[in-house]
Amino acid sequence: MKKRFLSAALTVAMAVSMTACSSKPAETAPATEAAAPAETAGEETEAKEAAADTGDKELITVGYAQVGAESDWRTANTESFKSTFTEENGYKLIFDDAQQKQENQIKAIRSFIQQDVDYIVVAPVVETGWETVLEEAKEAGIPVILSDRMMQVSDDSLFEAWVGGNFVKEGETCGNWLADYLEAQGRGDEEINIVTIQGTIGASAQVGRTEGFANVLAEHSNWKMLDMQTGEFTQAKGQEVMESFLKSYDDIDVVICENDNEAFGAIDAIKAAGKTCGPDGDIIVVGFDSVKAAFESMIAGDLNATFECNPLHGPRVAEIIQKLEKGETVEKIQYVDEAYFDTSMDLENILKERAY
Ligand code: GYE
C-alpha cells in the first residue's frame, strides 16, 4: 500500500514538474511511465494531499544515453551519473547502456522523448548522424545536454551545452611528453617507430587524440607512424591489435593507446610476444584516461605514462540542469582541466587521492 501511495505521489509531483518546466510546451506534459497505474479519483486526491503535506519536491526526470561499459573510464562515468542523479538529490534517472552502438543510442533517445523526460543527456558514441533525433527532441521541447564526447550538428541550438575533455589537447600533451622523454633519454634524434591503437573510429576522444598527436608528430621528421588501427577502447581489442602489430613490425619503439584499457591489452600482447615494455623495456607504452589501474601498471613498471581525461561529469551536468531550471544561461562548451602522470612521479601517493 505504502509503495503504491508513494508512486501516486510521485506521479503528481512529476506532472507538476513537467508543466512547470519552462522550456516545454504544456500540452506535452503528462504521459510518463510512472503515470501507468490507473489510480481511482480518491487515491489521486489522497496523493495530491500527501505531496502537498510532506512538501515533496518535484523530481526532475533525466534520461542518460550512455555509450556502454567498454572501459574503466566509462564505469566511473556511469557511477558519477548514478550517484548524482538520485531521488535524494531531486532526480529520477533513466539510464540506458547502448553497448557502443549508435543505433541503440538513437532508440534510447526516442524512448526518452516518448517518456517525456525533462532532460536528455547524451554521451554520443560517434560525432555524426544525430540531426534527425535531436530535431525530434527539440520538437518535443526537451532540452538535450551533451557530455563526454561531442556531436557535429549544423544547428548548435539542437543542444544546450556540452561538457567534457579537450581531446586534441590531450593528444598534443601526449606528443610533447614523448618528445621530452626521448630527449631526456638521449634519443631525440633517433629514428622512432610508432604504432597507434585508436579508440572507436569517429568518436570525439579518438578524433581529437589522433589529431593532437599528429600535430606533434608533424614537428618530428625522425618519428614514423608505422600503423594505426582501432582497438574500440577495449582491453580485449587492444590486445588483439597489438598482437597483429607485433607480427607485422619487429622494430616498434612506441605504442600510443587511445585509452588505458587498450594499453593494458597491448602490454599483455607485448609480454606474450616475449618483449618488454615500460621505462626499462623495449617498447614505450602510453595511454589516456589516468584510471586507477593505469597507476598500478606504471608502479609495476609496465606503462610509461597516462594522459588524464576526467569522467566525473555527473555533478557538472547537474549544475547545467540546475541553471537551466532557474532560466539562467549556461556556457555552451565547457572543458574540464586535465593533467598527465608518468613514472617519474610519486605515483603511490597520487593514487591514494584518485577518485577513479
Ligand atoms: O577515454 C575511453 C572511453 O569518451 C573520453 O571513452 C571517453 C573515452 C575514454 O571508452 O576510455
UniProtKB/TrEMBL annotation:
<dbReference type="GO" id="GO:0030246">
    <property type="term" value="F:carbohydrate binding"/>
</dbReference>
<dbReference type="InterPro" id="IPR025997">
    <property type="entry name" value="SBP_2_dom"/>
</dbReference>
<dbReference type="Pfam" id="PF13407">
    <property type="entry name" value="Peripla_BP_4"/>
</dbReference>
<feature type="compositionally biased region" description="Low complexity">
    <location>
        <begin position="26"/>
        <end position="40"/>
    </location>
</feature>
<keyword id="KW-0732">Signal</keyword>
<dbReference type="GO" id="GO:0030313">
    <property type="term" value="C:cell envelope"/>
</dbReference>
<comment type="similarity">
    <text>Belongs to the bacterial solute-binding protein 2 family.</text>
</comment>
<feature type="region of interest" description="Disordered">
    <location>
        <begin position="24"/>
        <end position="44"/>
    </location>
</feature>
<protein>
    <recommendedName>
        <fullName>Periplasmic binding protein domain-containing protein</fullName>
    </recommendedName>
</protein>
<feature type="signal peptide">
    <location>
        <begin position="1"/>
        <end position="22"/>
    </location>
</feature>
<feature type="domain" description="Periplasmic binding protein">
    <location>
        <begin position="68"/>
        <end position="307"/>
    </location>
</feature>
<dbReference type="InterPro" id="IPR028082">
    <property type="entry name" value="Peripla_BP_I"/>
</dbReference>
